[in-house]
Every structure is written in C-alpha cells, then in structure tokens.
Design a protein that fits this description.
single chain; 13 strands
C-alpha cells in the first residue's frame, strides 16, 4: 500500500486489489478493508467503510510467537504466521509438529482481543510483525472476516507491503 496513492493506500481482502477506484471521473470507495495511514507515525487501519467495525491485534514477530507458544521454528521463520488458523470460532496456532498427520494446535490467547470491535481500529506498523484483523458489520451480523497479515516491507511515509491470508 502506498501512502500518497489515493487508490492503493487501501486494500480489499475479498479480491486483493486496491480498495478505492476512479468511477465516472470520481474517486470512490470500492472495498476498503485495510488502509495505510501516516497518522501516528504510520498505522494500519480497518473498519473504515460505512457500518464496518474492526479490531486489529499486533502479535509481535515470528520469534515472539515462537517464544510464547513453544513450537519449533528457525530464527525469523514463518511457522507462527503460517500456522495461524480459524477452527470453528477459535483462532489457533501450532503447538507441536511431529509430521503433518500428527500436528497439534493450541488456542491463540491474544485472539480474545478481537472481541472488541470499533470503527477505525488501528495499530502502529512494525516491520516483521504479525497482525490479526477481524471485520464485522454493525448492520449485517452475518458478515465476519478474519485475516492474518505480516509486514514484510516498510518505508515510513511512503509504502508498506503485507502478506495476508483470510482465515
């Protein structure tokens, strides 16, 4: 996402494209699930569309996750990010991986922080950090999106690159 580009400063999780569009010579919202703003020294913001409310949780780096949850992973590895998954209504993370058939999972304790949704939920951007995002709609109680993302590149006041996946 680019801070100074009115189209690609936002991201749509539904199709992975820019959240804004030029329609009939006007700048309009198309599907803005995540935004990059310069406020607060650079932040990720969600819950910015009409009626959308969200929560963002910074889980720290892959090394932080490995330390808290005790699974095996290389230094700065991607196991923590890759293993985050939604099981029913719970988000889990790897406990132990003794082969794909025998992997075990544990609840992600920080997931409880996703319960408190609000408009314009935000989190400071930190290179290498893993985030969870939950988006709901104040009018459509059936809408529920859970997304994991990791900041893989960050140039303050210019651009942020995230790898993301719907849970």
């Amino acid at each position: 996402m680019y801070a100074m580009d009115p189209l690609s400063r936002t991201l749509c999780f539904t199709d992975g494209k820019e959240g804004m569009a030029f329609i009939s010579n006007k700048w309009e919202n198309r599907c803005s699930d995540l935004s990059y703003t310069l406020a607060g020294g650079g932040s990720l913001v969600s819950g910015i569309e009409l009626n959308r409310i969200a929560a963002i949780v910074d889980l720290g780096t892959g090394n932080d996750l490995r330390g808290r949850y005790g699974y095996e992973d290389a230094e700065n590895g991607g196991v923590g990010f890759a293993s985050l998954r939604l099981e029913g209504d719970k988000i889990t993370i790897l406990r132990d991986d003794n082969g794909k058939e025998k992997a075990s999972w544990q609840p992600l304790q920080e997931a409880s922080q996703l319960a408190e949704v609000k408009s314009s939920a935000n989190a400071p951007i930190k290179l290498g950090h893993v985030y969870l995002v939950r988006i709901t709609d104040s009018r459509d109680k059936n809408l529920q999106q859970f997304v994991k993302l990791i900041v893989i590149a960050y140039r303050p006041e210019e651009a942020v690159t995230v790898r993301w996946e719907l849970l």
